[in-house]
Fold each of these.
Amino acid sequence: MHLDNGKEDLICGEDMSNEEHLISKGLAILIEDNIISKIKPEEELIEEFLPSFNRKIEKSTKICMNKINDTLVTQVGRNSIIPGLIDSHTHLLWDGDRSNEVSLRMKGMSYSEISKAGGGITYTVNETRKSTDETLAKLGKERLKEALRNGTTALEAKSGYGLTTESELKLTSIMNDLSIDETNPSIDITWMGAHDIPKGKEKADYIEELINKQIPEITSQGYARNCDVFCEPGWFTIEETERIIENASNSGLSIRLHVDEFKDGGGADLAAKKGVDTADHALYSNDDARENMSKANVIQGFLPGAPYTMGLDKWPPIKQCIENNQPWTIATDFNPNCRILSIPSIASICVQKLGINPLATLCAATRNAGISVLHRTEKPHGIIKEGYVANMNILNGEKWEGWCLQQGSSPFKATILEGSTVIHTIT
Ligand code: NIG
Ligand code: FE
């Protein structure tokens, strides 16, 4: 499951499920300095690089590791290998518990009504501001471990639960520390000061703060590469979003957006006009806007965990996107309201509920996600290909389709994170 069809750009339409081009058997992979340096038929690679290695044909599904001279040989048995998963949309760092909101929703309150009553993002902001750096770092570490256990080798993570210059800088700084630690998945950091309007502030004043204080301080701190805005009726309007992202972009930040999560507010049209990297949720976007985004190479970042956790029966139009050859990804949207850190769980919704092809779903969560998420090495990732970061998952079984058919536990036996094998289960 190398997903290498000879091209490196976004993969769309039927190409995403072309098994002949994207899957091979019997290949061996040489890793040097955390990068895939050679992929060849097993016998040829052994002959060329490790002639002293006496290969036994492995019939079992056990993973076997041996040191031969200076080379660590990992035999994966009959298990399938897929690229490391890339979670292109998470709200990783926050403190506090909003489990009670499930009951409010069942009493008929909407996300927006809960938010107006002091729940939602406001509640998490208060809890996060009260939390210590140590606690937030520990929470981040635990969440990254869980993501890695579920095959995520790189992710995008947003600030946005501080909403003051100081607390936003604190969140990006903790994320930077977490990303430097190579035992964690790599993090591409996004500043999302425009996630909500902090209580006690006028919106117009807060927007001035975002533009004149947060953007300059965030860019001089240098940890965030991207900017995201919650462009949604009731939060930031099209005009406000445009002003914020123009300033962020002029300061060197790449732009991603939350658009049309609860209604078609024109967010996708703005995303197309501005040619942003990715327009996420895009649940209620209109067909013309989707087509315009595609023409502008804007990815539709689908987050089916959001309607799933909110009990809504509204799903992203992934089939239509495939028919129209438009680029798309899937991600978890991990946040206090959607506590899913597993891409395979999200993929199971796509495949088992929405009927999307499992190979196409894998392309969305690996090579397409790798286009909008920069790896900490700045090397390409998301495909098992020479020159790419050596991030891979060893499945618990022979049939590759098993990667996306499991809720509640991980389908992986081991994850290779930048060349180092992390064993999840010994059986
Ligand atoms: O992507 N919609 C905005 N942000 C998150 C939810 C944040 C929250 O509820 O805390 C999202 O769904
Ligand atoms: Fe989100």
Amino acid sequence: AEELLWKSEKLSLVGELAAGVAHEIRNPLTSIKGFIQLFQQGVRKEEYFHVILKEFNRVEDIIKEFLSLAKPQEIQLKPVNIPSLVKEIVTLLESEAHLKNVEFLIEIEQDIPMIMCDANQLKQVLLNLYKNSIEAIDIKKEGLIRVTVRSKHENNLLIQVCDNGVGISEDRIKRLGEPFFSNKEKGTGLGLMLCYRIIKDLKGTLSFESIENQGTTVTVSLPLIIDETNVTVN
Ligand code: ADP
Ligand code: MG
């Protein structure tokens, strides 16, 4: 019965999301249609192509994130070296960060143990968090994103992403993770929903602290489960 309940909860979430997706892609599709109609009427401007492409990308993003939410990957727990994962994802985003005048600073405590985790899923979470931080920083500002990894904290491994971006007001913090909750022109508002889902599956927690106009700190806390392969059995 529990399984059934869980299934129906999941189905209704997918249904709700699907309704939202339909709603969210209607705007870019309407806009694409409009431009094509302009073309038919002979109004042909080079810049329309950029707008059309931008709108297509938005539809693509929404569908991509919807699919990863609606069809979750199975969690595969394996020993993961969190510090290298954290660094790897920073490298992926470094050129994008550089373009926005944002610098990453990585601080890793000594002796971080391997933990049992799903590296691919955690990658998705970190990518989303780093991206949100980059996007929160005004291009005119010297952006700084400090990523710290610590493990000497109540049996949890903590990954913190701290930025000096625009921050989030208290009433908006409560709504983070709601589908389509976004204040960005090209945002999907699905990123954090996915992050919350993954971190919950990994039995961890995700929390936000923020001061408006100063910055935001996101904390991912994961259980420090000892890697069984390191345990000697007599
Ligand atoms: P999206 O990035 O597509 O807007 P997300 O679910 O990733 O969707 O984030 C939802 C909203 O939370 C963002 O639109 C933004 O308003 C806010 N947010 C998330 N992270 C940060 C951050 N580091 N600084 C400021 N605002 C943030
Ligand atoms: Mg995002």
